[in-house]
Design brief:
Layout lengths: L59 E6 L18 H8 L2 E3 L2 E2 L4 H10 L34 H6 L4 E7 L25 E5 L12 E2 L2 E2 L7 H18 L6 E6 L11 H4 L10 H14 L24 H34 L6 E6 L26 H10 L16 H7 L13 H4 L3 E4 L9 E3 L3 E2 L3 H9 L6 E2 L2 E2 L23 E6 L2 E6 L2 E5 L22 E4 L15 H17 L8 H5 L7
Parallel strand pairs: 1-8, 1-9, 2-11, 3-12, 4-5, 4-8
Antiparallel strand pairs: 2-10, 5-6, 6-7, 9-10, 13-14, 15-16, 16-17, 17-18
Length: 605
Amino acid sequence: MKNRIIIVFAIAGSGFLNRPVFSQNISQQQEPFKGVIGRTVAESKAAWTAQIKAPAGAPNIVWILLDDVGFGASSTFGGQISTPTFDDLANNGLRYTNFHTAGVCAPSRAALLTGRNHHDVHMGMFAHTFMTGGFPGYDGRIPSDKGTIAEILRESGYNTFAVGKYGVTPDEDATDAGPFDRWPSGKGFEHFFGFLGSQTDQYKPDLVEDNAHVTPDGRHLNEQITDKAISFIDRQQNAKSGKPFFLYYAPGATHAPHQVATQWSDAYKGKFDKGWDVFREEVFKKQKQLGLIPANGVLPERNPNIKAWASLSADEKKLYARFMEVYAGYLTYTDHEIGRVINHLKEIKQLDNTLVFVVIGDNGASKEGTLNGDIDRALFSKPLPEEENIKYNLSKIDQIGKPEGTEVNYPLGWAQAANTPFKFWKTDANAEGATRNPLIVYYPKGIKEKGGIRTQYGHVIDLLPTTIDYIGIKAPEFIRGIKQDSIQGTSLVYSFDNAHAPSKHTEQLYYIFGARAIYKDGWKAGLPYSKQFLNLYDPASLVQDENAWELYNLNNDFNERIDLAKRYPEKLAELKALFEEQAKKHHLYPFITYDDLVKGKLRKD
């Protein structure tokens, strides 16, 4: 018998002919029938299912999450890159200066969306096949009992949209054949437009709309996702449903490749010629003036292997300055596109009714550009010798920021500068330079203080409970019939009206690729993977000393300058024991390191 395709049409008696049979949208849990059914209508009692509504007066919610932005990059937090949209939101809202991420993108995003620590939602690393590891804390598959903010809000009467980078869909699920339960549509978002992976070309993105890949139109991705976000909002508003909406706006910016039109990058020509050392000093001074860091703070020394700007050749200075001009233009352009969304909300008279959270970076500034910057070499490719790499990059300096610059990322000196006032960078989960990112909270109706600064300790797992606490809803016990695990984050609402309230989030665990830390009541113990770790192909950089734990009192040493491990061994031992206890509780075992990745220990047979 020849193979045949069998098509079955099912037509519901209620006549919903326009409803897709294979819809991936999440339906609200069907309530059990509470009436009476007799043989006739007269003998029966009808019971109507009530429409789920958000609490009266519930605001729209907008979450904005940028990628690979250091603490000291934006003008809003003392940096030299203009971000007027963020400035305006912060000047009319609150700046949180002690807010934290997981230290790298997918773990931060999974923790943010679920309100739970990243290993608890199986995102100890990434959702990429070669990194998932096959262990519960690392398999890259967010379980259904760890519902997302979108699922919670949708079940609570909100419309839900997402645009930009999703970053937590397993690679093997990321085709048009699905399965779609770990795509945005399977995690509570009614509409999605963006990309599923960790990074994409900004002009030729791996673009998805709802449950299918689509062809990009050649414009910069930031412009495309902004247009789509505005269209989602307008369609929702035009329906006049009375529902509030939740928008998750997560551009690929400013992750590599750094690509932006020259009108944005050229605006910074010559502005970084003084170099990264002067940049750090000037930003540090500005941060003090703004009250963002302690007035008696001291700027840490340059990270290991970063050369003094004054020691560089003229060619190096020219090359490295151009990398930073492009990065700066990229960030300013991203701020501009976010401003289009904010201005549109103002035009349709919804901004005053919208609670906005802006997390400026899912981790610290990126070290992936290596010491000399990158233009078009594949990520994780073996780096060229320094002189050869500089010569190669100089020959292609005009490609930096252009569509043909497919892997553009600035050199490490600028990554440290963007992380001012902290040490180290992305993935160094032991260091504040990897995990401390700015947070802005803006809500004209509810936040009385304008331009306030908050120093309470926070983490990305706190945004979900903060959001639902402020709205006045509870995390559901069940989502789609699946009993939910507890939320682990702490609401920050207590700090909205009280700058001096003591922190309620008092303990936090960190672990990325071997680098680890435990925070408790202002004290922090951390174990670096390697202070010299810059090169996956250098065996010396893959050696970790388990006895190299460091200890800092962040209450009076906020940027980790003074290691107290030898002075207070009892405190260090106490925190190390707490780390081990929390590691077991939150599924960190087995510890997976860079060495395991490089040697292929996680490959599937």
